[in-house]
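Allow me, if you will, to draw on your knowledge of protein folds for a short while. I have a record of one protein: its chain in single-letter code and its fold written as C-alpha cells. Could you please explain, in whatever detail you think fit, how the C-alpha cells follow from the sequence? The record follows directly beneath this note:
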Amino acid sequence: MEREVNEIAVGLDIGTTKIVAMVGRYNEYGKMEVLGVGKSKSLGVHRGVVNNITQTIQSIQQAVHEAESASGMKINDVTVGIAGQHIRSLQHSDYITRPNADAVIDEDDIDKLCNQVHKLVMLPGEEILHVLPQEYKVDGQAEIKEPVGMYGGRLEANFHVVVGQVTSIRNIGRCVKSSGLELSEVTLEPLASANAVLSQEEKEAGVALIDIGGGTTDLAIFKDGIIRHTAVIPFGGNVITEDIKEGCSIIEKQAELLKIKFGSAWPGENKDNEIVSIPGLRGREPKEITLKNLSKIIHARVVEIIEQVFLEIKNYGHESPKKKLIAGIVLTGGGSQLKHLKQLVEYITGMDTRIGYPNEHLAGNSDSETTSPMYATAVGLVMDSLAHIKKQKKTIQKQVVTNTEVDQQGETYVDNLSNNEEENPRVDLKPRKNILEKWTEKFKEFLDNAE
C-alpha cells in the first residue's frame, strides 16, 4: 500500500525489554489514531544500549512485521528514540554579536547561535544530540522567550545541551538500516514520552516526568513550557526482577510474573500470612514465598531508584521559588504500573504524583493496550514524526508559493538572472532545517559511507 506524504508516521522504540513499532496518523479532530502496533522481546539491548547487533535486527524486523500486518501498511521509514546510560545533559550560555544592530533579529541569527553551541568541545567519543534554547537575552535585557523581530546587537542565550555517545547512537542507526528501514529522525526518549503524557498546563506549571523502563529510568523536567533538565538513570524494572530472582532463588520468568501479579512497593500493605506457592523446577518441591518478603525486596530497590531520580530533581534546583514544580511528578513507562508506587513516590519526595497514560493526544476509540504507560515512548515518537511531516509539508507549500511568485515576476527577471548572476542572487528556496534534522542528515551520510 503506497504511503501518502502527509498521513502516516511510524515510531520505533528500541527498549531494553521490548521493541515496539507503532503506526499512527491524525484523525479529523486532530487526535492521534493508532493504526497498528507490533512488539517483540528485545534481546540485544542492555540498559538502553545495543550490545548485540544481530539479535536487535531480528527483534526490530519482528516488531515491524507485526505492525505491518496489523495496519496493512508497508513501513519504510521510522523515527527512533534514543536513551541509555550514556546520555547526559549540561547547561551552557553563549552569545553572538550581530554585525548590524539596526536590522531585526531573525531565524538566521538563532540558527547561528545554536550552531555555535554545536561546536562545543565534548569529551572524546561524545556528540551533541539536542541544543535546546532556554531563554534569551538581547543587549542585556533578560528573560526573553522569543527574540525574533526585536532589535539588538548582542544576542545571548542559555542552552540545555543533551550529549550522547557516538558509538551507541551509530549502533542503533546501523540496526535500523540493516533491518531494511530508513531512519527519518532521532529523538531523545524522555522528550518523546513527555509529548505523549504531559499536558501543556503541566509543562507551564512545572513538572518532572519519570519514565521507568526495563533497563533505564528517564527523567525530563519542564517549567514555563520549556524543557529544563534531562537525565537517564541506568536502573529500571529489570533490576527489581533480578533482585526477586536472587532473593527468592527462582528463575527470571517466575520472578517477573511474581512482580507483575503480586508485587507491591509498600510492604505494610501485605499481611504476614499471605503466601504464594511457586512450582519447583523438574519435579522439585514447590517454593513458598510470603508476599511481605516479596514487597520488602521490591521496596528496597524501588526506593533506591526513586532516590537517584530525586537527586537529579534536586540538582535542577526545584526548591527555589522560581523553579518550583507545581504540577509535581508524572510516572510513566512499564515500571510505573507497580502497585502502590504512586504513594511511595509521594512519601519520598513530598510532591504530588500521578500515573501518566499516553491518552492525552490519542483518539477516543483507541484500545486499552495502546493507552498503557508501557507505550508512552512509542506514542510520543509517532507524534514527533507526524509533527515533522507536517512541518515539511508547510515548508513545501511555502516553496510552491515562492516559486509561483518568482514565475510571475516575468521573463525580464529570468533574463536578468541569466545575464547577471552576481547582481541578482538566486532566491534560496531550500527549507531551513533545524539542528536535529541537520544532525540526522550528517548521521545518515556517515552510515552510507560506512557501508
About this structure: Residues 1-6, 410-432 have pLDDT under 50 and may be disordered. The chain is about 40% helix and 25% strand. The first strand starts at residue 9 and ends at 14. The radius of gyration is 25 Å.
